[in-house]
Each structure stands twice: as structure tokens, then as C-alpha cells.
UniProtKB/TrEMBL annotation, chain A:
Subcellular location as annotated: Cell membrane
GO annotation terms (biological process): siderophore-iron import into cell
Family per similarity comment: Belongs to the binding-protein-dependent transport system permease family. FecCD subfamily.
Matching PANTHER family: ABC TRANSPORTER PERMEASE PROTEIN MJ0876-RELATED (PTHR30472:SF25), FERRIC ENTEROBACTIN TRANSPORT SYSTEM PERMEASE PROTEIN (PTHR30472)
Pfam hit, one: FecCD
Native organism: Halomonas halmophila
Top-rank lineage group of the source organism: Bacteria
Principal location class: membrane
Membrane-spanning segments: 20-40, 47-71, 77-97, 135-156, 168-188, 208-228, 259-287, 299-317, 329-346
GO cellular component labels: plasma membrane
Matching InterPro entries: ABC_BtuC-like, ABC_transptr_permease_BtuC
Protein name: ABC transporter permease
Molecular-function annotations in GO: transmembrane transporter activity
UniProtKB/TrEMBL annotation, chain B:
Protein name (record): Hemin import ATP-binding protein HmuV
Encoding gene (name): hmuV
Low complexity bias spans: 250-260
Source organism (scientific name): Halomonas halmophila
Keyword annotations of the record: ATP-binding, Nucleotide-binding, Translocase, Transport
Highest taxon of source: Bacteria
């Protein structure tokens, strides 16, 4: 018996290792491809030279290396990194929400956290609130995201409505429409130049990302990953339902508060800088679960990697599918994620599993 | 070890538990019995610390239940619920392992304890199965194994045998009785009076939230007591080799004279 389990264990560990390695490699490859391709035509050898230049101080600068350097280091790299970070935080937020609600269909976009957070952001833009300087917008997005998540949780209380997946989704519809109506009214009030930045919220975009947001969001994503990863065991136990989780030693009240704060933080960080990008939090944890099972120890980090990878590829598509125009990334993820969501619902098993 | 002192629970003006005092010492298997809605599961959830009583007190080792943290409580008591929930496709072995996840027990014992608990209820062959696809009985056995690896001095079982066939009913309750004999404190809500009589050394009979009898199976399972509480005529026999009481129902008595009279009057008019 023991040898059986231990042999099963070791045979499972190595594919998991391979999965981590291959996903990291794919991420690296994706990063290089993202950085090398784009609308501005720069010879790849110049880009490569610009890419390696800082690491080899002796390398002689080419004639027009100025452009290559600027395109690579000031435009494409921050943008690709931002895609990685946003994708990671959305996917982790999705995985954490699904654990909290015990519902594989929970996603910051679908249940309304994203629209709640973007309502906060829109409110700050249109009403010209400016109490915390440059931080007003992210903080406002976080606060409204937090309140929305809490509200959704109170309404959907998984313990009281066990197995009622539809309830959460119905609440999501209501929250989305209320937040949408309020955002719509604020948009109506907005001036022309405010309208332009509001368009950005409604569709989501990674264009015009500089190093500042990348450096702002990086620590948040890292913090979210580390703290969430430490909740892996309680999150697993939460799959037994709140009552049994408590019997097994999980302080459900504290865990819930923590998870709501973290989901709101990760979602708001994404929304504050890139607007609403949907479905990453739904698609990625689901795929990871089919690969490594539902255990949060691997689900959370692999979702982070996978989410980053997926959004980076999506952004590459957004930039290169219709040159020289850019497809708003939110529209692209929604057009892929929507059908995926339908497919999930369609193949729903009678036992309630997905 | 686990003691209830004059505990009551009132929810929305309804008195679900009414001044119950019960002492469940280490080394005993207490069965909570009683008709539907008597408050058996409610009393068990008070014992589990799911909610505090409206009046009275519950203590574990003379310390009030509310003074334990969630984590401490998980080291003292394990609870097997009536129906188990699982929200994602964990494997059976992972589910059993969850019982130990937040216990500060030596890690090197994990594999042995988990293997033994699974073997005990014969679910080793299901170890790699998706636990969401189990039958009711397999689910109950998995939950029993999970509760067991939590290794707590107190075990609270809420109708542990409801979904099980004869073999596993017997097996599971034998195991529970062995734990009790080893010095654990085991409390089980049971519907089947005969299983309770065969395996528990103490029975606590509840009726409409009140504890109406407490003692050995022969003391509690008396005919007039059961007929009063269950409103069903019964007959008590002796088990051929276990020497414990066996309760069987008997046919309803003939209609009461008043009923016949009113029927007669109706036919006349």
C-alpha cells in the first residue's frame, strides 16, 4: 500500500515539474516573440542588439540603434511585462474566487468584481476626485472592488446555498447591470476628453503602458501570489464546505476576509491600469485544474504563470491581427472566453461537476 | 471529557434544544437517538461548536467550548457530517489527507495513518478516483476515513451509517466502538435503534429538544418509553447472541372506540 502510494506520488511529481518548466520556457519564448514583433518596423537584428546591449557594455551601438532601443525598452518590453503581470493577477484572482465560492464558474468579470472596480475608477475620473494624487485611481478601484466582492459574497453565501451555481451567476448579472448602469450614467456626464479615457475602461487596453504601472503592479502581484499560495491548504479544505472546513481547523471567517481582500486587490490592480479584461480568471484555472487537479498548492502558481502567458499571447494577437490598428485586448479575450464559458456550461455534468 | 450543562438553543422563538445536560466521558460510545426533529443533529452541532447555545454551557475537559480557537478545536474533536460536500474534483486519497492538513501531527506518520484509515473502510482501490463521482456509501466511507486521520480524542458522527449497506454499517460502528474502548469519546447520532443498541454503551433518547432518558441500551429502550416518544407500538426482544435489546415495530392497535362511534354516527345521518 505504502509503496503503491509513494510510487504514484513520484510518478506524478515529475510531470508536474515538467509542466512548470515548460510553462516557464513558453513564457520566456512568448516574451521574446512579443518584444520582437510589432507595428513599428524595426529590423530584428537591431532589436536583438538592443535587447542584449545593456548586458554587454562593450557592444558597439549601431547607427539607428536609438529607435530600436526605444521601441524595445520603452514600448514593447513594459507592455509585454504588463500583460504577464495583469494576466497572472487575473488568473490568480479567478482561482481564489473559485475556491472561495466553491464554484468553478466564479470569475472577477462574470460575478461583477471587475465592473465594480471599474465603476470606482470611472467615478474618480469623471468626478475629478484627487485626494491621493496618482494613487487615487488604484485605491478607488480597490475600494469599490472590495465592497463589490463582499456584497457578492453576502448575497451568494456558498454555505447557505450549497451547490447552487446558478445563484452566483444571477447575482453576477445583477451586479454587472447595476455597475454598468452607474458607469453609463457617469459616462453620460463625462466631458469629451474624459470620454476618451473612459473608452479605455470599457474595453481594456495594454497600449501606452510605461514602466511606472509595471513597477507599481509588480510588487502587488508578487504579494498576492505569495500570500495566496500560503492559503493553499485552507483553500483545499474549503472545498469540503464551510462547516467541514471549520471542523478541520480552518478559521473560515478570517480566510474569507483575506481572500476577498486579495481578490479585490488583484482585480483592482488589473482594472486600475488596463481596464476590464475578462475571462482570464475563468479559462486559466480551469485548464490548469484539468492538468494538475484542483489542489491549490499547484493551481495558484500555475494559474499565475498560465494567465500571464495567455494574456501576453492575446496581446500579441491584439497588436498583430489587424495592423496597423489594435484590437482592444478586452474585446479579444471576451471573444475567446465567451465561447469557452458556454462550452463549460454545455458540458456540465449531472453531478454538478465541471 | 465532553460535557453539556443545561444547554438550550432557541432559534426564531422555537426551542430546538431544551435544558439538556449530558456527560460523554472518554472511553464511551454514546448514541443520540430519537424521532425525526427531536434535535439530535442540532445537539451534535452544539457539541461540534458550530454555534454557541442560547443558555447553558458545553465544555471539553472542563474548558468552555467557546474558549477554544478553531484550530485548537480541530485538535480535540472531529466531525463526520450527515452529507458530505465536495466542490472540486479532488481524488479520494487527497480528500482523506485533508483530515490531517491542519493538524500538528508528525508528517512521517501521515502515509501510514492515511493508508490504514483507507484500508479500514476498504477504499484503497478508490484512492485515485475523482471523489465527486463516488456513490453515497463510498462518500460516507471516505468521510469516515478523513475524520479518522484527524486523530482527535473526541469523535462526533452524524448518522454515519445512513448511506451504508449491512457490511459497512457493522464495520464502521465496530471501529467506532473500538475507538471508544481505546479511550476516545465517541458520540453518534443514530436512527437505527438496533445498531445503536448493538454498538453503543450509552443511549441518550431525545424528544422535542429534551433529553428524556439516558443510560444503558436496556435502560433506555423500554417499551413504554419508546412508544411514548415515537408514537409507534413496538416490541422489545433479546438479541440471540449479542445479548442487547432488539426493537421491532408491531402492527397498529385496532381503532379507538371514539373513532368507531363517530364513524357510526356519520353513516346513520
Amino acid at each position: 500500500m505504502n509503496t503503491l502510494t509513494s510510487s504514484l506520488r513520484s510518478s506524478q511529481r515529475s510531470p508536474r515539474h515538467r509542466l512548470y518548466t515548460s510553462m516557464m520556457l513558453a513564457m520566456l519564448a512568448g516574451l521574446v516573440v512579443s518584444v520582437l514583433s510589432g507595428v513599428v518596423q524595426v529590423p530584428p537584428q537591431d532589436l536583438l542588439a538592443a535587447l542584449v546591449a545593456p548586458f554587454f557594455a562593450s557592444a558597439a551601438p549601431a547607427a539607428d540603434s536609438g529607435i530600436a532601443h526605444a521601441v524595445l525598452w520603452e514600448l514593447r518590453l513594459p507592455r509585454a511585462l504588463m500583460a504577464l503581470l495583469i494576466g497572472a493577477s487575473l488568473a490568480m484572482a479567478g482561482a481564489a474566487m473559485q475556491g472561495l465560492f466553491g464554484n468553478p464558474l466564479a470569475d472577477p468579470g462574470i460575478v461583477g468584481v471587475s465592473s465594480g472596480a471599474s465603476l470606482g475608477a470611472v467615478m474618480i475620473i469623471v468626478l475629478r476626485i484627487d485626494v491621493l494624487g496618482a494613487w487615487t485611481l488604484p485605491v478607488g478601484a480597490f475600494c469599490s472592488g472590495f465592497v463589490t466582492t463582499w456584497l457578492i459574497y453576502l448575497l451568494a453565501r456558498p454555505s447557505r446555498f450549497e451547490g447552487d451555481n446558478a445563484r452566483l451567476l444571477l447575482i453576477g448579472i445583477a451586479i454587472n447591470s447595476v455597475a454598468g448602469a452607474m458607469t453609463g450614467y457617469l459616462t453620460y456626464l463625462a466631458s469629451v476628453e474624459q470620454l476618451e479615457s473612459l473608452m479605455f475602461w470599457s474595453m481594456g487596453s495594454l497600449a501606452s503602458i510605461s514602466w511606472t504601472p509595471v513597477l507599481t503592479i509588480a510588487p502587488l502581484v508578487l504579494f498576492g501570489l505569495v500570500v495566496l499560495r500560503r492559503q493553499a491548504v485552507p483553500l483545499d479544505l474549503l472545498a469540503l464546505g464551510e462547516r467541514q472546513a471549520r471542523h478541520s481547523g480552518v478559521d473560515v471567517t478570517r480566510l474569507r476576509r483575506r481572500l476577498i481582500a486579495l481578490t479585490a486587490l488583484l482585480t483592482a490592480a488589473a482594472v486600475a491600469f488596463t481596464g476590464t479584461i475578462g475571462f482570464i480568471g475563468l479559462v486559466v484555472p480551469h485548464l490548469v485544474r484539468t492538468l494538475v487537479g484542483p489542489g491549490h498548492r499547484h493551481l495558484l502558481p500555475l494559474s499565475a504563470i498560465g494567465g500571464g502567458l495567455l494574456l501576453m499571447i492575446a496581446d500579441l494577437g491584439a497588436r498583430s491581427l489587424d495592423p496597423p490598428n489594435e484590437i482592444p485586448i478586452g474585446i479579444l479575450t471576451a471573444s475567446i472566453g465567451g465561447p469557452f464559458f458556454l462550452w463549460l456550461i454545455a458540458r456540465r455534468q449531472p453531478g454538478g461537476g465541471y | 471529557m465532553l460535557s453539556i450543562q443545561d444547554a438550550s438553543l432557541t432559534i426564531d422563538g422555537r426551542r430546538l434544544i431544551d435544558a439538556v445536560s449530558l456527560n460523554c466521558p472518554a472511553g464511551s460510545l454514546t448514541a443520540l437517538i430519537g424521532p425525526n426533529g427531536a434535535g439530535k443533529s442540532t445537539l451534535l452541532s452544539l457539541m461540534a461548536g458550530d454555534r454557541p447555545p442560547s443558555d447553558g454551557q458545553l465544555t471539553i475537559n472542563e474548558r468552555p467550548l467557546e474558549s477554544y480557537s478553531v484550530r485548537e478545536l480541530a485538535a480535540w474533536r472531529a466531525v463526520m457530517p450527515q452529507d458530505s460536500v465536495l466542490r472540486f474534483a479532488y481524488r479520494v486519497e487527497e480528500v482523506v489527507r485533508m483530515g490531517r492538513a491542519l493538524r500538528d501531527l508528525p508528517v512521517e506518520d501521515d502515509e501510514r495513518a492515511i493508508g490504514a484509515a483507507m484500508q479500514d473502510v476498504e477504499i484503497e482501490s478508490l484512492a485515485q478516483r475523482n471523489a465527486m463521482t463516488l456513490s453515497g456509501g463510498e462518500q460516507a466511507r471516505t468521510t469516515f476515513a478523513r475524520v479518522r486521520v484527524q486523530q482527535t480524542p473526541i469523535l462526533l458522527l452524524d448518522e454515519p451509517t445512513a448511506a451504508l449497506d449491512l457490511r459497512y454499517q457493522e464495520r464502521l460502528l465496530q471501529r467506532a466502538a473500538e475507538w471508544a474502548a481505546d479511550g476516545h469519546c465517541v458520540v453518534a447520532v443514530m436512527h437505527d435503534l438496533n445498531l445503536a443498541a448493538a454498538h453503543a454503551d450509552r443511549l441518550a433518547l431525545l424528544d422535542r429538544g429534551r433529553l428524556v432518558a439516558h443510560g444503558s441500551p436496556w435502560e433506555v429502550l423500554s417499551r413504554h418509553q419508546l412508544e411514548a416518544v415515537y408514537r409507534q407500538p413496538v416490541c422489545i426482544m433479546r438479541h440471540p447472541d449479542r445479548d442487547c435489546p432488539v426493537v421491532v415495530t408491531t402492527a397498529a392497535p385496532s381503532p379507538t372506540p371514539t373513532a368507531t362511534q363517530s364513524d357510526a354516527r356519520e353513516t346513520v345521518t
